[in-house]
Amino acid sequence: MRIRVISVVTAGVLGLTAACSAEREGDGEPEPFPATLATVSPSPSAQPAELVPGRTWPSRPAGNFRALDDLATATASTCTVVVHRGRVIHTGGAGLDGSRQVYSITKSVVGLLVAIAAGERRLGLDDRVSRWVTEWRGTASEDVTVRQVMANTSGRRWTYALDYGQMIRSAPDKTRFATGLDQQHEPGTHWEYNNSAIQVLERVLRQATGQDVVAYARARLFEPLGMTSTAWARDHAGHPTTYSGITSTCGDVARLGLLVARDGRWGRTQVVPRRLLSQLVGASSQQRNAAYGLLWWVNRPGRVVEVQRAAGFATDRPPYSGRLAPRAPTDTAWALGYGNQFLTVVPSRDLVAVRLGPRPAGPDQLTFASFTDAVLAGSGGARRR
């Protein structure tokens, strides 16, 4: 097993890394740490366990992915992978082994970790963050919930200069900086893609689980899924960066997608409780941005705020009414990172696709819709059954 943890140890390296990743935008007392993950017990008439990869992926090339390949070439993509029913049906570029920083796909990984911790009753999504961030007690932030932080409706202080210029690029202890900001809006009344607020989840997870976030991720997610080529960066204070920080491969990211496509199951093992996963990816978390679940992007109709500065572009597209990918199924969900690192999951088609690579030249060159449409067209309308 090889999980690497990267410490950013010089101001120069930290500045370069942070500049590249600049982006905007079960309650109760904890129970003993389970010895094993939950196992789904099949009935006598149950179907065999769904296909999942071991050390290597089963492969069966299929479909016509010319449009996807053209899109990947035009954006100098490092790698693309398409998985259907647990088998790799197409790869491009460096394929499964292509590796890059995935930036805010890290947020979606953190969402899965919060759901796992909630399933273990170490925290509840509607718990107050001040349960663990005690300095918020007696302040305007006292009632901010874990769910609101994940939905980007926490109302915590945000400006571009604070979020990008200070927290991401220069704060040596990012968790301390993030928890030390004040309240700008009443919780639940304003949507803002807030990296600093999401960094607060490092403190929440560490306190709630009693473990370092990377150690928890390794035990509860990376090792069960066989993610052997995934690293997680830390700030100068040694804290994992939960808003951005993971470096991974197309193959490892696809494993995350397959987990989500299978309602949190990995074979016969329930890694993420289904009822909690559905709250991350199954619906809009609020209506101020219907395209956002809980640290995942969703394809639900309503007022859409794409926040293209999160992908590294100069300005955001104005809000509009509709869906992120109008021709894709409504259950489609995405993890998105700076530079348009994409993990696309279509549970109703048992379909997963990954694109890692440099930032496209413009915001319209590679979008939620264009990437997803190319994947669906190439797979020939793949369906689960």
Please characterize this protein's 3D structure.
With 385 residues, the protein is an alpha+beta fold. The chain has one domain (16-23, 52-378): Beta-lactamase. Helices cover 30% and strands 16% of the residues. The protein has helices spanning 11-20, 66-74, 105-119, 146-151, 160-168, 174-180, 195-209, 213-225, 250-261, 274-281, 368-378; strands spanning 4-7, 38-39, 79-84, 87-93, 99-103, 231-234, 246-249, 265-266, 269-270, 297-298, 302-304, 320-322, 333-337, 341-346, 351-356. The strands form 4 sheets. It has a 6-stranded antiparallel β-sheet, sandwiched between helices. The protein has a 4-stranded mixed β-sheet with strand order 1-6-7-5. The chain has a 3-stranded antiparallel β-sheet with strand order 2-9-8. Helix 2 (66-74) runs antiparallel to helix 11, helix 3 (105-119) runs parallel beside helix 7 (195-209) and helix 6 crosses helix 7 (195-209). The radius of gyration is 19 Å and the shape is globular. The two termini are 34 Å apart.
Strand order of the largest sheet: 4-3-15-14-13-10
Q: Helical residue percent? A: 25-40%
Largest sheet: 6 strands, antiparallel
CATH topology: Beta-lactamase
List the secondary-structure elements in sequence, H or E.
EHEHEEEHHHHHHEEHEEHEEEEEEH
Q: What are the low-pLDDT stretches, counting only 5+ consecutive residues below 50?
A: 1-47
Number of strands: 15
Number of helices: 11
Topology:
Layout: E1 4-7, H1 11-20, E2 38-39, H2 66-74, E3 79-84, E4 87-93, E5 99-103, H3 105-119, H4 146-151, H5 160-168, H6 174-180, H7 195-209, H8 213-225, E6 231-234, E7 246-249, H9 250-261, E8 265-266, E9 269-270, H10 274-281, E10 297-298, E11 302-304, E12 320-322, E13 333-337, E14 341-346, E15 351-356, H11 368-378
Helix pairs in contact: 2-11, 3-7, 6-7
